[in-house]
């Protein structure tokens, strides 16, 4: 257990030609958008929650100046409300509960009273209304010709600490509006999606005699043990096809990065350094990025799976960890202060494997567990500041950060 705790502490725009160069998109140049609610079902509380969710989504898109005034209207009215007559766009929607109690949304996007986009949505359970709002924002973003924001519709999974050495695993939307506990009881940490479909996940259980990696199928609810190891056992990354895992294990007391084949169950040791090697991330088919203290302090390195050659790839910062990679870009956590008797600041930085530029992405608090979206458009991360955990979203192409606080507990780790 001592080994586990010590290693956990270690673990724990479009920019002209390079995403590490800051470009600020002026808000004054963005088109304005207002929202009109034409709902005929549901109570005021529910309608207010849906309105706030879609307003937040439009704001996160970062392509509009969003008017957050709540207004009612008749869905079939030929003109927008007088208060919205000067808006470039108006989003009008109607929430309807049908005879089968399904949740229906009719939506139209209007430009100067002309309807330019219409969509209908239906889900059986109104409790997942936030995913409908996310899809509406996605469709509007697509209509506007912006880069895809597929990540908006994806789920996140995180470990929430609710008391010392007691945690639960939660599936949520990126705003934490929806939360569903999928594993409770015991000390369960480091969840990791097992596939693109997000139909299964891995996680580390510390309820057994030794750290154990488990797999849960969300469709069937069935669980199985993948592998156990003395010292520690963490799945830090899953290959794009879901057939390979990168594991951090310490069977002899020294943590190293291992490659695990899901089909054959074969394990290959990738690092062999008399120190700490943890947190492997796939970089293409033959390379792995990982965290190591082989320079006397934690830093980011790459390793060739075929040749075993190791190369330092981050040169800014003296205590770097918790990295994620996408193409030529690396986002990592770096300690920005060294206070003995007060909280230290840990910020996220974006670096490129092709240039020397490094861009700081956060400013205060402890920012950790960064994860690129599949398209590289956004980064999700965890911010701990003033005794509160939040999920953060960084829109790289727009130089904007957004925070969504967790109301209960503290986030231990997260995956997207």
Number of helices: 3
Q: Calculate Rg over CA atoms.
A: 23 Å
How many beta-strand elements?
A: 30
**CATH class label of the largest domain:** Mainly Beta
Shape: globular
CATH superfamily of the largest domain: TolB, C-terminal domain
CATH topology of the largest domain: Neuraminidase
Number of domains: 2
The overall average pLDDT, rounded, is 91
For the sheet with most strands, the description reads: 6 strands, mixed
| Stretches with pLDDT under 50, minimum 5 residues | 1-18, 20-25
N- to C-terminal distance: 28 Å
Properties at a glance:
416 residues, mainly beta, Neuraminidase, Rossmann fold, 2 domains, six-stranded mixed sheet, four-stranded antiparallel sheet, 3 helices, 30 strands, globular, disordered N terminus
SSE topology sketch:
Layout: H1 2-11, E1 32-37, H2 44-61, E2 65-66, E3 71-72, E4 89-97, E5 103-111, E6 114-123, H3 129-143, E7 155-163, E8 166-173, E9 179-183, E10 188-193, E11 200-205, E12 212-217, E13 223-228, E14 233-238, E15 244-249, E16 256-261, E17 267-269, E18 277-283, E19 287-292, E20 299-304, E21 310-312, E22 320-326, E23 329-335, E24 346-352, E25 358-360, E26 366-372, E27 378-385, E28 388-395, E29 400-405, E30 410-415
Parallel strand pairs: 1-2, 1-3, 1-4
Antiparallel strand pairs: 4-5, 5-6, 7-8, 7-30, 8-9, 10-11, 11-12, 12-13, 14-15, 15-16, 16-17, 18-19, 19-20, 20-21, 22-23, 23-24, 24-25, 26-27, 27-28, 28-29
